[in-house]
Amino acid sequence: QEGKLLVRLFGRDGPLSSTVWEDASVRSGWVEGVHSMMHHLPALHFLCNGGGIDVIFTLQGDPSLFVASAAGQLLVHVLTFSVESETTKPLGTKDCDWPACAQMIIKHIEDSLRSSSASHIQQSLKLLSSLFRSCHATWTEVLWLGIEKQIESFLTEETVQVQHMLANLLLNMSWSPVFHESEGNFWPLVTSALEHLAPVQAGPLAVGILRLYKSPQDVRIQALTVLLQPMECILRAASQPPEYAGLLDESVGDLTTVESLLSSKSSCASLLCQTLARLEELLSLMRSPIDLPYTSLLRSLTAILQFCNGFLRPASPLGSTISRILINCFRVQRSALDVLAALAEQKCCDTVMGSVFDVLLAYLESPNTSCTVLKKTFQATSKWLVSLQELSCSNSQWQQAEKILEDVFLVLQKHLCSPSWEVRDSSLEFLTTLIKYLRDQDEFRQSLLSSEVPRLTESLLEDPESYVRASAVTAVGYLAFITYFAPESPVTGNQSNKENTVAKLQEILSTDPEGFPRRAVISIFIKWLRQGCTGQLEDTEQFVSRVIQTVQRDLDWEVRLGGLELVEIFCSQTICQLGLRKCPYAPVSSAVPSSIHQNESLQVFCRANLFSFLYRSLCDCDKPIGQRACDILLSLRCSFYPTSTLKDSQETGDSPSGQGLAWLRRTLRQGSLAQNFPTDGSNGVDFQDPENMIIALGTIEFEDLHDELNRCSDHVEKSPQSLLQDILATVGTVEENEVDCY
Amino acid sequence: MPEIKVTPLGAGQDVGRSCILVSIAGKNVMLDCGMHMGYNDDRRFPDFSYITQNGRLTDFLDCVIISHFHLDHCGALPYFSEMVGYDGPIYMTHPTKAICPILLEDYRKITVDKKGETNFFTSQMIKDCMKKVVAVHLHQTVQVDEELEIKAYYAGHVLGAAMFQIKVGCESVVYTGDYNMTPDRHLGAAWIDKCRPDLLITESTYATTIRDSKRCRERDFLKKVHETVERGGKVLIPVFALGRAQELCILLETFWERMNLKAPIYFSTGLTEKANHYYKLFITWTNQKIRKTFVQRNMFEFKHIKAFDRAFADNPGPMVVFATPGMLHAGQSLQIFRKWAGNEKNMVIMPGYCVQGTVGHKILSGQRKLEMEGRQILEVKMQVEYMSFSAHADAKGIMQLIRQAEPRNVLLVHGEAKKMEFLKQKIEQEFHVNCYMPANGETTTIFTNPSIPVDISLGLLKRETAIGLSPEVKKPKLMHGTLIMKDNSFRLVSPEQALKELGLAEHQLRFTCRVHIQDPRKEHETALRVYNHLKGQVHSLLVLKDYSVQHLPDGSITVESILIQATAHSEDQGTKVLLVSWTYQDEELGSFLTSLLKKGLPQGTS
């Protein structure tokens, strides 16, 4: 019976004649079905003998992309499975004996490659690509030898448009040890492909080759040539006669193809964008296996950026054509700035540093720079400023650096007042990044503090756009590190300014209608607390207490979560400072008996009203809050009950506080509603009473609560197959409801 | 042949995850980038790996266009731009750009909170994504690059929803997004001009439905709210911050005013201001009535609807509360629901669809006992009602839009296959255009026949009309001239003018042919025989009628431009060679005469 069913479903005459076959999801399901069968030899034989394999061949050209792609994958799987499970002796290069099923697929590949139909050739190339990518067995080489000549011919034939697939195929092969270690014809073929393919198609192949450690030197040179040729052309077009050394050896390659692509309107921008993207990819590798001519590359990049903003209009015919094409081309600007940012991390570019900043500043200052380009300019500038700082430490180039910083802050002032929120926001983010990386530099601090930037930044705390307010909060928070919290800062002494700023942030936390600024405030408070900026313990206690009073009412659960994080840090710092637990960072271990400390820290926590916040959070309607609160309470218990001397819950007895605790435990067990949680004191639970709280910590079953909170998730259910079915299930079959989704 | 290719990655014979790829004249555009509410896994986003097999997305796609702020149209955008790596331009209208991040943020919060997912886009990613967005105005032609331009039209549906026309050269596609052809309480009806696109991609949510008037549903809604309030119950309406909520607010506000009701109506804190802010900011996007009365009274500043404080939920007596979020999955609406669920006098009205797994979904499917966060059983005694207030065009509306835009082809998305099939037939019958309905992942290719406008010179036009009959308005007329393609323009001028303009000398191209004839006589005698033969034929053959055959003094013969000369054969005295030549204008006649001569000369024609 099963056999019959199989024949009906997967046999030659099975599904094809049925009308349901027209439904792509049926075909897709069929492929999936065959795929899951192909782990057993009988199934393989059934497929090959029953004509199923022909159906898969047909499905390679299916109108549905999903089905076609799945069919290709399936063929790869069947081929691999067939060869690996049916061959007994290793396949030799001569008169090899493929198993029957593999034979069919290989013949199909060979026939398709020889056919005149471009789509058949493409299907086979795709199939080979994924085969060589996924399977690195030696038999793949035997297969390759049979089709090598045919593939080679595609490189020179212009009739078949399969260039990018060829590049992809060779790329996948180059990563397979079977080929990249072979003595055969593979590497010459790659070299020839790099020469013959259009630069845009050869780019990905070139990067792939350069990422390999084991590729032959001459192939690497060819690959590098492909990537650098457009940059070389730009360099030559920018200055005729050339002022500086080029990127490439004079002898390498003929530039006419690239030159003609660059002088055409339709191909110039896309060639440059793709080349730049490849270069960025190469630069982003952790350990770049190649040494690029960084200085010349930078010159070429600055030339591109100057073509784009109209600063460079060379007299050479190619130069003037390119400058006409590239002017105001945002796409190229963005790509070039990405590469420029990546190059800042290479430490060998000091000779051209000046011209890089000239270009960056020109972009920052120009009113024509678009928002997205400006953002990338900011990113590149911050990276170059960091690298300038590192350089100037050793080079005493600070005079130059000071001037640059002055200019940067001047232009930043302007952007902080921009009418576009995107620009204001990116400017604030830029400022935050600068402070993050350069705050230890005296010159940086001086330049910043003597500019209008800090004042403007504070004024943006009242920006109408919530994103900008949030970024302003973060920037102000970081500014505080170099003003109020830096010991040597001239502003440090100004206590009232500091209090004003803290009060302003507190106000945002309690009144801002949007979540982002409130979340930004709580993260800044967390940062301050972590770095010990909030002052003495007593100040900190009040500070934390005030913050959680505000935060616990917040509608945004991420703000409440931030509040919990603040509490967590405060608790561990307090415990460390009072020496309750051996703090790994404590300078001297305390000699005072631990019970005194225990008492002291408990009192601090109760005074700050932490417990009320923590227990409420356990009942929060947002799950992450409950989980976090539970974790904190568990760790507090560990601090107060270091050994397993937990109290027996019966011990608490019938006293009023005992009843209160019993109520608390009941409430928590039931997971009662946050809003039903009593205000402090009612029902006899006094969250500010240390004695009560230490008993609660010892008696409440936090482990059980923790498990429950982690387990319960009524929101993850099996995905419905279709949204429409889901709606039907929900609201019945009233037709109108079927489609009323959004 | 130029073609337009359309591949839906989502919304092909389906609702949700709208994402349609369009290739037009070498440009690639993505229309919408939505998520599917029904899935929690990979399937919730379109599979972007199919967009391009090699190369970067940014190089392949010229732009992304978002039609409106609903998540099934923009929910995957931050994922696409910040995680998949698209770095190119994104277009949407100003209101969509303003409201979109709020919904995305809401969606992110739910996913991260309820489902505990960590590998999801962050707030920072949403912001970075929104910074890449270029906002457009209605009817503003935006030049994406030198060739590609887009233009937004009003679509109704929700605040800021737009249809987009995508144009490259003379080829164009219109994508409707979701639209509504009838105005509602706060928005107007969709409108597009007669732009005659090559292809109209339209939603087909209500493909087979002619909807009853919205009034009915509104009456029903008001009746239910009124009854509950009358008997002292509380009504909870879970809504999303923007969209349907405002429509319902206007509805209740007017009803309260008319009926002089006193029960308080509340709206979630924070959201009233925000919603108000956006509606004020984008007042031009609302309907005429609201715009007109705005000066005297802002429809969104409600007299009866006040900001809600969580303490109000415990107040005794009737009240109506609009609270977010809309599916009762978290936050304020869920808190209020928990408080009120136990009282049978109360009512919850769900004005939209709820995703599986949410409390909203559970109560709508009839569950009366809910396990809240696994620990407490909540018994639902309050009444639960579902009301559909979605604003899509119905079958009539879709036909109306097609009539308005006059497309050459129609493609249906955002609907169910069976219903699409029905609408497809209707469209093909009524408008005699091809209608397509590809499934997800299927590519539809539409061949276009771009008409290329050509300027014609006045001189040529005058000459042609002088020769021919007077021109008729609707009848195409064939004209001969020289086409000059110069500086991106096409002009048809007379050959003389073309020569003059281009500074060229005229060359005449003649077709030649040799015909061998058995004739021992002298050449001029042969020529005479040919002349006589042709003369005779002119009288007998209809084809040659009205042509004059001439025998020139040099012995050659002409018929129009055809020239025939007889020469001796170099080797064979008995054979004469006839050299026949003609210009391309007389191609037909030349061929005819040659074939006639090839048959030989009749005897006795000397």
From TrEMBL, chain A:
Q: Which GO biological process annotations does it have? A: cell population proliferation; DNA damage response
Q: Which domain of life is it from?
A: Eukaryota
Main location, first listed in the record: cytoplasm
Q: What is this protein called?
A: BRCA1-associated ATM activator 1
- Give yes or no: UniProt keyword Electron transport: no
Which keywords does this chain's UniProt record carry? Cytoplasm
Q: Record's PANTHER family?
A: BRCA1-ASSOCIATED ATM ACTIVATOR 1
Q: SUPFAM superfamilies in the record, alphabetically?
A: ARM repeat
Q: Does the keyword Metal-binding apply?
A: no
What family does the Swiss-Prot or TrEMBL record give for this protein? Answer: Belongs to the BRAT1 family.
Where, subcellularly, is it found? Cytoplasm
Q: Which InterPro entries match?
A: ARM-like (IPR011989), ARM-type_fold (IPR016024), BRAT1 (IPR038904)
Q: List, alphabetically, the Gene3D superfamilies matched.
A: Leucine-rich Repeat Variant
GO cellular component terms, alphabetically, are: cytoplasm; nucleus
TrEMBL record, chain B:
Name of the protein in its database record: Integrator complex subunit 11
Q: Which GO terms describe its molecular function?
A: hydrolase activity; metal ion binding; RNA endonuclease activity
The answer to whether UniProt assigns keyword Lipid biosynthesis to this entry is no
Alphabetized, the UniProt keywords read: Cytoplasm, Hydrolase, Metal-binding, Nucleus, Zinc
Q: Which residues form the Beta-Casp domain?
A: 245-363
Q: Name one GO biological process term.
A: snRNA processing
Task: Tell me where in or outside the cell this protein is found.
Answer: Cytoplasm; Nucleus
What sequence ranges are listed for the domain Metallo-beta-lactamase? 16-233
Q: Which GO terms describe its cellular component?
A: cytoplasm; nucleus
| Gene3D superfamilies the record matches | 3.40.50.10890, Ribonuclease Z/Hydroxyacylglutathione hydrolase-like
Q: Which cofactor does it need?
A: Zn(2+)
